[in-house]
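quick one, two chains, predict together pls
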Amino acid sequence: MPSPDSTPRLQLRQISKRYPGCLANDAIDLSIAPGEIHALLGENGAGKSTLMKIIYGVTQADAGEMLWQGQRVNIRNPAQARQLGIGMVFQHFSLFETLSVAQNIALAMGATAGTPKQLEPTIADVSRRYGMALEPERLVHSLSIGERQRVEIIRCLMQDIRLLILDEPTSVLTPQEADELFITLRRLAAEGCSILFISHKLAEVRALCHSATVLRGGRVAGHCVPAECSDQQLAQMMVGEAAALIGEYPKVSGGAAYLQVNGLSWHNPDPFGCSLSDISLQVRSGEIVGIAGVAGNGQDELLALLSGEQTLPRDSATSICFAGQAVATLRPDARRQLGLAFVPAERLGHGAVPELSLADNALLTAFQQGLVSNGLIKRGKVETLAQQIIQRFGVKTPDSQSAARSLSGGNLQKFILGREILQQPKLLIAAHPTWGVDVGAAATIHRALIALRDAGAAILVISEDLDELFQISDRLGALCAGRLSPLRNTTDSLLSDVGGWMAGQFNDAPSSATL
Amino acid sequence: MLLSLEPRGQQSRLMLWCSPLLAALLTLGCGSLLFIALGHDPLQTLHTLLIAPISDLYGVSELLVKALPILLCALGLAVAYQARIWNIGAEGQLLFGALAGSALAVNIIDMQSHWALVLILLTGTFAGAAWAGLTAWLRTRFNANEILTSIMLNYIALNLLLFCVHGPLKDPAGYNFPESAMFGDASRLPLLMEDGRVHAGVYFALLALVAVWVLLQKSFVGFQIKVLGLDKRAAGFVGFREKRLIWLALLISGGLAGLAGVCEVTGPIGQLVPQVSPGYGYAAITVAFLGRLNPIGILFSSLLMALLYIGGESAQMTLNLPQAITQLFQGMMLFFLLACDVLILYRPRLKLRWARRTSTTAVTAGAL
């Protein structure tokens, strides 16, 4: 632990930032000591990203002051932040896939740092020092997500760094990879580097961070020592409600298989994409099957094949069946008529059209529910449906005519999920249903999924959030490099098992044998 | 920066309506400056340009005659543009429609039945649609950019028309002028008024206006077209058929342009001539955007554009102003409209200079 009386590395005083229509940061105080790992906790829209952007100079505060090692600074751009010794690893990496690790790092450091070849020894040195194995000459597209994150971190460490900001770094990692990252971070902190760790995964914040600042609605809801708080206490600070948010749901075993995938293989024409090989799974009516996996291991491809965005040739029509009927050649609208509902991973630009109103977005997938007659849209019915979704699922919006993009992530996700659930699907496929969604909305979404399951629908959830999968799914599996592990009952599975599956440690026995 | 733009977060309904007005004012203002620079009295020139041409019934009828092809083309373009299919080929589709209609008309000059006109109009419409169909086929089959293909097809259509009017369709009794024979009376669109040239094509335009309005605002196909334009992935995820919608949008677009062309030759012109269109198909692009791809808006903007056409002609005759004035006005209007549209999503904000200076000094002090 850092000594409390030393000058803080970074101190924020009364930082405020207003965006049109919302006060993103309201008089925020924050202090990080040298060598401290400080967590920034908060639900979506609490102002975490705004605060980070202010510290890193991406945007400027309207009011308040920032002290860097006791001196008042006004960071106007990221370059200046880097000069001061502030580094940041964003959630979405900014790497060139066709360049090597060393080339990527050289690009980011500028011409004065030297050529990629000159940098290679330093890169190797830094990666060894902090226990992050990385070969400088590898091309980035051949790296796993975890390795790409190491590139980003090493890129920050190449300079004299005194504050490292990490935005939800573990969201793309397997549990084992996350543990490795924590070792690196602890070593870094021991050397005196301060770390600002943004996350909403309470368990890892408790395991890693010395102290935490919790944001709620743009304000500081409290400071605490995470190791001394329970999940429940932390969640309450984040959400501000006494209601139990971390629910336990009974596990069930379901009825007859509704979705059957039999030996599905698909060659991806995209050289950087993932091909699927011999995937078999069954989802029974009245159960939730969860599929874990690190992003890029075939989730997008499997989802496209299941939703019908990618259809298969006639000879493999039976590789996907709904209640015994071959559907692999059918288009999405035809599959929807057979009872499919689908929640894609990206809300804006895939699940909903950003520019269109909520009412129009309700029509988008529900048009087969009697909302169109003689080719004309029945506006009244569309409006009623939109209102129903907004009310039943507690979507916070001025009215159904608001554009989809004006909603926060969690609200829009509630709307999209509500839209699909109100169509009374026999099969719901949901990708990352609570990704980037605040704790309150996530609980609503989980309850809705469980209610749909209990009403007899077959549900397939693909997610990177293992806590979520353990919480809601009845059976579990994991995707790795386009192959699916056997599915196992959640109650019989350990977190470490799933972590192993995510890393490809499962035998090649056909998964149907273990069903 | 002294003036900065801040995102509003929501579209401003007020600016949605005010932006065209503001653009019109700016166009008038800059136009006046231009006239002063040319040594003309701005008020008088604007009067000649914008008011004098429609101060009598004949003028109004001429306005409608000019507005008609622009309106038809722009309505079609609005359908394509809603799907983000940038059909720049309305001019070619119009010319090809006129050419095909004329080719039929000169062969049935002696036919007395009203079916002659119906056949000619249908031929022209289908020919325009077919010309746009080429663009649709190139786009859906080879993924060829529709902007390039439709522009290139404009030139092909123009040269085809010139070839035909100088060759196979030339009036044998026409003293070798590059014109076709005058069409038979049964093949001409009837006039609506004794004086003036307004013809029955106005009904088609009104029909098309209502049809496009229903299509875009009320129908599910129109909704699919809009979704395709706004968000291709969302359209794919619910199973809207992208290629089919591209074909549909381009066929509607081309069909209406073809109808506009054939209405010109069977209406005011009465024969095929090399100058069927003074660039109606291109003007329609501006008109479609000025009208915000909304059929009602397009009605008004096409009237405005027609006014600029006749006003330009009368300014040419009475004030000796160059013909380029018309194009300059069109260009300024589109330019100012696009510029003013920024204000729909952004709010301008004046920043005081001293505020920035103090912050700069604070930075340098902090960095040291």
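Chain B touches chain A at residues 6-11, 214, 218-221, 223, 226-227, 230-231, 233-234, 236-241, 347, 359, 362-363, 365-367 (CB under 8 Å).
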